[in-house]
C-alpha cells in the first residue's frame, strides 16, 4: 500500500461541481485532493458534451462544456488542488479519530478531515466493444484507460475510436510504442480538430497507421494478445497487436458509492439543504449525486451547494472559530489567497 496522503478535504469527482468546490473551500483555507475515474477534469461536461454550448451558466451567455471546464481550472489554480485521475474511489470509512480513510482502486490511501462526494451520476464505466472473447484479455492486454504509460512502452498498440480519448492517447503513446494503429469505423472524428490534424500528420510520416473499419476478432493466449483482425473496406486483415485500447464511450453506474454506508434514495444521496451534509457527519454531497426537495440537476445548483457546504465544512474543521462572511470584491485577505493582491 502506498504512503498515506493527508489532506483537509478529499473531493470524489472532478466534474464542474467538484472543481468549483475547490474554490469555495480554498477561500476558507481548506486544501483539496480530487479523485476521478476519468483521465481529465470536467465530468459530464468533458465526457458527454465537450463541444455543446451551455446557455445557463450565469454571466456566460454561451460556453461549451470544454471551455467551462477550462475556466473552472483557471479559477481554482490559486488553491493548487491535487488531482488523481484514472482512479475510482472504492472505499470510504470513518476512522476512530473522526477523520476519513479513502482508498482508490490503485491502492492509494488518503486521510481527510472531510469528504465531499461530487460524483454526479456515479462512476463512468467503459462500454465494452462487441468483439468476441475480449473479456479474456481485459486487464492483461486490453485496457479501457491508460493508468501507467510504461505498460505501453515498446508494445504494438491498437487504439479503437474517434473521440478525444482515442486521439489524445494515440498522440501520447506513439513516441513510446513499437507500433501504433488507430482504427475507427468512420472517416470523421469527434476529437478536437487539432488532435485529428496531428494524428494525420503522424499517419503521413509513417509513425501511425490508420485503418477505416472495426475490430472483428482477437488472437492470443493466456490473456496476452498477439494479433487483432480488422474488418475494413477491403475485407479482413490481421495485424500484430499486444495492447488494445478501445474507447467506445462510457456509461454511468452508481458504482461503489452504494457501499459507503450513506443513506441513499433512488441511487441519490439525500442531504440537508442547509449544509449539504449526508446522513454521515463530515461527508457532504453536492451536484448531481445529491437529492433534496426541489433539487434541479443543473451546474449552477451545484455551485450554490458548494458555497453553502463550505460554511458547514469550515465549522467542522475549525470548531468555535467565528466564520466571517466576506466578498471577494472587497476582502483583501480573500484577494491575497487568490493571488490578486
Ligand atoms: P459530473 O459532471 O457527473 O461529474 C462527476 C464526476 O465524478 C465524474 O467525472 C465521475 O467520473 C466521478 N466519479 C463518480 N464516482 C466516482 C468514484 N467512485 N471515484 C472517482 N470518481 C468518481 N447542466 C446545466 O446546468 N446546463 C446545461 O445546459 C446542461 N446540459 C447538459 C447536456 C447533456 C448532454 C448532459 C448529459 C448534461 C447536461 N447538464 C447541463 C447537466 C450537467 O452536466 C450536470 O448537472 C453536471 O455535470 C453535474 O456536475 P457534477 O460535478 O455534479 O457531476
Automatic annotation (TrEMBL):
Domain of life according to the entry: Bacteria
UniProt keyword terms in alphabetical order: FAD, Flavoprotein, NADP, Oxidoreductase
InterPro entries membership: FAD/NAD-bd_sf, FAD/NAD-binding_dom, Fd--NADP_Rdtase_type_2, Ferredoxin-NADP_redctase_2
Cofactors demanded by this protein: FAD
Annotated transmembrane regions: none
A GO term, aspect molecular function: ferredoxin-NADP+ reductase activity
Enzyme Commission no: 1.18.1.2
Cofactor note: Binds 1 FAD per subunit.
Catalytic reaction list: 2 reduced [2Fe-2S]-[ferredoxin] + NADP(+) + H(+) = 2 oxidized [2Fe-2S]-[ferredoxin] + NADPH
Residues that hold FAD according to the record: 36, 44, 49, 89, 124, 288, 329
Database matches in Gene3D superfamilies: FAD/NAD(P)-binding domain (3.50.50.60)
Enzymatic class: oxidoreductase
A Pfam family this chain is assigned to: Pyr_redox_2
FAD/NAD(P)-binding domain ranges (all copies): 8-293
Subunit structure: Homodimer.
Family label: Belongs to the ferredoxin--NADP reductase type 2 family.
Identification of the protein by name: Ferredoxin--NADP reductase
